[in-house]
Design goal:
Order of helices and strands: EEHHHEEHHEHEHEEEHEHHEH
Keywords: Ribonucleoprotein, Ribosomal protein
Structural class: alpha/beta
Largest sheet: 4 strands, parallel
Protein name: Large ribosomal subunit protein uL15/eL18 domain-containing protein
Pfam family, one: Ribosomal_L27A
Family: Belongs to the universal ribosomal protein uL15 family.
């Protein structure tokens, strides 16, 4: 910032200082009363520039401006206001009040510092629990990992799959090994599964005699596979039928009549020696259901199915087709059945 003197010369003013119009006028009058001498001709090398101001003139103008600036700044400073009186000290509270207030403050600070998550109490109506209040125990459930939700989650961008490759782009079928021969084809085959195999539940004559002596089976009536299943002579699953075994054959001392799927030669001979009969009958899967649980068809509103004929591979191993519903009286053998049974037993002896 500069001010102009009487001879149209600019005198520098300290930058950033505050000066009033009165101080500026006083400075001009001072310069007008004491003008500076005429300047010397310009040096040829200065290209017509004005000569520099004498040092004495600079110092005088600087001192004058600094005095006037200080006076102006002093006049413009605001008067300091008196400070308010200090507040009067409050009376001391009783000890019990101080302790209570401090405890309350401590509790409030602790609550704001670390708020403990207290589970919401269950609302009940009397002794009954509301269905809308049922929830898992704390920590019993875990939130599902959300993938592809930014790098801050730890599962963003590639979502834990890595960069490129088959495992990053999709999945291969089970057992696929990238094109090479899989393990299931490299290992040799061994054995086979017989599609025509049958599984029979064994039942010994000793167990049947024990149930007869206990009064659970009536020996005067026909003993069917349903009777043996209900009395616990076999397990829960009857599978393809029951095979009569000769264990405990010496305990059979009275005539009994049986209808089973298979029978050993020893068991059949023991029953016939006591005056009883053993008939081999055929039931398929549906026939066994109708024999063991006829109430199932009644519940479904269906009629009992007809007994199925045995397949060709089992015709020479049974005596007749099973009867539905479960019979209670034994069926006498016809001459043709007796002849066929004799041929079957003879063929079994020759094979053995």
């Amino acid at each position: 910032m500069c001010i102009r003197d009487s001879q149209e010369n600019f005198v520098p003013f300290p930058f950033g200082s505050a000066i009033s119009a009165e101080a500026a006028g006083r400075a001009r009058r001072e310069l007008r009363e004491n003008p500076k001498p005429p300047s010397a001709p310009a040096h040829p090398n200065r290209r017509g520039r004005q000569p520099a101001t004498p040092p004495a003139m600079w110092r005088r103008a600087s001192h004058l401006l600094l005095r006037t600036t200080a006076a102006a700044v002093t006049r413009r400073l605001p008067h300091p206001h008196p400070l308010p009186p200090p507040p009067r000290p409050l009376p001391l509270a009783p000890p019990w009040v101080a302790s209570a207030s401090s405890s309350y403050a401590t509790q409030a600070a602790a609550a704001t510092a670390a708020p403990a998550r207290v589970p919401r109490p269950l609302r009940t109506v009397g002794s009954l629990l509301r269905l809308n209040d049922l929830r898992d125990n704390p920590g019993a459930t875990k939130q599902k990992t959300r993938k592809g939700r930014g790098i801050g989650s730890g599962k963003g961008k590639t979502a834990g799959r890595g960069h490129k490759g088959q495992k990053a782009r999709g999945t291969a079928r089970f057992g696929f090994e990238g094109g090479q021969t899989p393990l299931r084809r490299r290992l040799p085959r061994r054995g086979f599964k017989n599609r025509f195999s049958l599984t029979f539940q064994p039942c010994g004559l000793g167990k049947i005699a024990k149930l007869i002596n206990a009064g659970k089976i009536d020996s005067s009536e026909l003993i069917t596979m349903k009777t043996l299943k209900e009395t616990g002579a076999i397990g829960k699953q009857i599978k393809d039928g029951i095979r009569l075994m000769g264990r405990g054959a010496e305990e059979i001392k009275w005539p009994i009549h049986l209808e089973v799927s298979r029978s050993t030669a020893r068991a059949k001979a023991a029953v016939e020696a006591a005056g009883g009969t053993v008939r081999l009958v055929y039931y398929n899967k549906l026939g066994f259901r109708a024999l063991l649980k006829p109430e199932w068809f009644e519940k479904k509103g269906r009629l009992l199915p007809k007994a199925a004929r045995p397949p060709p591979k089992q015709r020479d191993k049974v005596d007749s087709i099973g009867r539905l519903p479960a019979p209670t009286k034994p069926l006498p053998f016809t001459p043709e059945e007796l002849e066929f049974a004799a041929k079957r037993d003879a063929a079994r002896v020759i094979t053995a």
